[in-house]
User: What shape does this take?
Amino acid sequence: MSRAWGAWRILNDTVFRPAGRAGVAVGGACGVRVAVGGAVAVRARPAGRSRDLALIGTGLYRTARILLVLPALAVWRRVLAPAGRALGTLLRWIFVEPVRWVYRSVLVPAGYVVRDAVLRPAVEAARASVRQTRADVRGTLFGAPLKPQVAHRREPPGAEARTLGSSTTALTKD
Assistant: This one.
């Protein structure tokens, strides 16, 4: 016999079989019948004292449900939930709506004034200063920019295209 088999046999004899027998005994006391071999468990109707305990437990459950759970549910649905909605609406009217009105009517227009009167001129001044600084740095590093030379044209300046007195559109042609 190998060591693994010996360890399994000891575990089976000392743990699994006694636990199984205890489970069958407890189940039998509660009205549960177990088929031979333990493959199928069948719940039978409780008999004797366990039947009486089952009926008492069921009666206590139904009584507690009728006396405690259903009234609490009715109070929740018919009193607490509507009161909570009403309180939420009232708090919204008291706190949220005034803040919303102040934001829309006062703070947004004030922000537009600050943006147009203060921030935009400051940004434009900063941009002009940065442009001037860039131009100065560029002039220092690379020298003064060359002025573009105008190319002399052979043709006299005038209209780029000539029509010789007639229209160029197809709609006005005869």
